[in-house]
Amino acid sequence: MADTSKAVLLICDGMGDRPCPELGGKTPLEAARTPHMDKAAAMGECGILDVVRPGIRVGSDTGHLSILGYDAYAVYPGRGPFEALGIGLDVQRGDVAFRCNFSTVDDHLVVLDRRAGRITEGTEDLAQAIDGMQIEDVTVLFKESVAHRAALVLRGPGLGAGVSDTDPHHEGEKVWEAHSLDPADEIGVKTARILNAFVRKSYEALKAHPVNRKRTAQGLHPANIVLPRGVGMAPNLEDFGKLHGLKGVCIVEVGLIKGIGKYVGMDVIDVAGSTGGLDSDVMAIGRAVTDALKDYNFILCNVKGPDIAGHDGSARAKVEIIEKIDAMVGFLMENIGPETYLVITADHSTPVSVKDHSGDPVPIVFCGPGVRTDDCIAFGERSAARGGLHRIRGVDIISILTNLLGVQEKFGA
User: Fold this and answer.
1) H-helix or E-strand containing 172?
2) How high is the pLDDT of residue 3?
3) What one-character DSSP code corresponds to residue 132?
4) Average pLDDT, the chain
5) What is the pLDDT of residues 139-148, one digit of tens each?
6) What number of other Cβ atoms are within 10 A of residue 377's Cβ?
7) Which of 79, 133, 223, 303 is 20 to 30 A from 7 via CA?
8) What is the pLDDT of residues 217-256, one digit of tens each?
9) C-beta atoms surrounding 410 within 10 Å
10) 133 lies in the same domain as 202
11) Is residue 364 domain-shared with residue 385, that is, in the same domain?
12) Is 348:14 a contact under the CB 8 Å cutoff?
């Protein structure tokens, strides 16, 4: 294979789904008008993908680790460090990191909205009211991310990751008290105590903050508390480029995936207008991908919108964002060049009927020079299952790509 061969791996976050009664028994992907994804299916080789293993409910973090060729069960350190590094926090050895939500609670700390009305403005000011606080001998590092998301790093002696979440994961429940997963573990007991103190102090700092007074006056949910979850400590992951012989870059929307890219030694390109929401400028992401092909031979691109619509339980919104992504696919197919492979898939399913990740497999297509085409002419969960790839795992993607790209070492004599 020529040295000019390159690859774009497009992850349509949470795109997989189940049949929806409101869509006539079709999934959102099947119901959407996707002429460009269908063209890729007709030109390429299709299959279905178990991102980690069949039936496993995969997170975006473990899903992307697997897709990048890592054994997620062996290397996953928890979500927090990826989120923190991805948005620019300094994560050092011994730090404990969490992903967080700005959330809304009532006076009794009952959660009214886990995402604070999907707040998009003022979070930087809110974060500044929290960042740098001291709790006992522990320093708090805190930074806002996209929309309601944020990250927390606890830095100090005697801390560990053996603690439970404070986010109850459902509205209508009171904020959970963190506890040590092992009551006899003094490190876990201390970390839980610090974490609970942080949550209380975040409420005290934010409940009367000017940003929230303004939101309340406008009839919006105030972002009056921070709820950490996804604890982890800084991981040690093998460099992606050395592992696979590729010069890779991430063009993704959320801090979590940016953090994974940074941890595995990939460059990260930010795109103006990419919000991580349903309003994201998807075409700007596509233009950034084509520009990056001048300098890289592997691009990981993630568009977050389908996952948002799935969590919101909106089949129509999911159809609309899939159609926006399809327009970007058309732009890519016209501009990436005939020597470039295009892979389209998802990191997990987020069915609108579940409003969360599920273990359902997702469709995948490989399109590019030398690919063995099959009989698929449409890209969907059920149509792709009839393709020549049959059923593969996330860790298989990079093996298939490096074989096609001609950069894979031969196994054996």
Assistant:
1) none
2) 53
3) T
4) 95
5) 999 999 988 9
6) 12
7) 79
8) 999 999 999 999 989 987 778 999 999 999 999 999 988 8
9) 5
10) yes
11) yes
12) yes
